[in-house]
Amino acid sequence: MAVKKVEAVINGQTYTLTLNSATGKYEATITAPAKSSYNQTGHYYPVTVKATDDAGNVRTVDASDSSIGSSLQLKVKEKTAPVGTITYPTASAYIINNKPIFRFKITDDDSGVNPNTIGITIDSGSKITGSAIVKTAVSGGYECTYTPDTALSDGSHTIKIDASDNDGNAAVQKSVTFKIDTVPPALSIASPANGLVTNRAACTVTGTTNDTTSSPVKVTVKLNSGSAESVTVGSDGGFSKVLTLTEGSNTITIVATDSAGKSTTVTRTVKLDTSAPVIKSVTLTPNPVDAGKTFVISVEITD
Q1: What's the whole-model pTM score?
Q2: Which of 119, 186, 123 has its CA nearest to residue 153?
Q3: What highest taxon heads this organism's lineage (predicted)?
Q4: For the domain that residue 27 is a member of, what is the CATH number?
Q5: 175 and 191 share a domain?
Q6: Which residue has the higher pLDDT, 216 or 249?
Q7: Are 35 and 78 in contact (CB under 8 A)?
Q8: What is the tens place of the pLDDT at every residue in 167-182?
């Protein structure tokens, strides 16, 4: 008898093999499945070979065959790496919490993300992996969070995230640089002095401000119940604002706010008094007075 037909079944598709007269073997060139075999049972696509002779006898072997089954396990690996995205913080963000919760996402639409490879690195420290990173399974991968055990210092920091899929493809490392700022800006008011009493309606507020981490600093000045007005701050941190006082007690509120949103407030109370004293009465006692003797002058004044 002679072999009439040889077929292979892979991933639900049937392929016909032809005899290679040079090798004496039945062969076919087949395009591998488009998806990785990692998520298949046993991490392989089972291959079934069926041979039929011209008498109609059929022999079938598959991956479960005790003799050659291992050679009928087609392992397919994807070549597309997973994708990482950092969702918090954003680039150049200012953060007032020195133990921020970092958030990022790793996805892979084929073999899937290997959770053991998910890592985060802070600045030049060691990569952090394992249970320190909270991983929540989502479609195609994981939503991840990590909170530093040790407070980060004020200033600039960079985080980097890494991961690979189950076929060993490494994602392109993603990074983001941000700033920690837990200290409000410095604010010093040179004038007016608190409690100043003046007869001049024009009052100039002068001062300096700065913030080591989050410059430039914005300054607003508010008089009494009016609106807070922005003031130009010079490169040296100096600023000034001319106000027009109202008669009586005035409250001046100066607020310096850094780029992280932290603020420092200074309040000054200034009294405007433009009314001269009123002399209501004068009494000289005794009057007339003897030469060389003393007398008392008594003056009644209101203000």
Answers
A1: 0.80
A2: 123
A3: Bacteria
A4: 2.60.40
A5: no
A6: 249
A7: yes
A8: 999 999 999 999 999 9
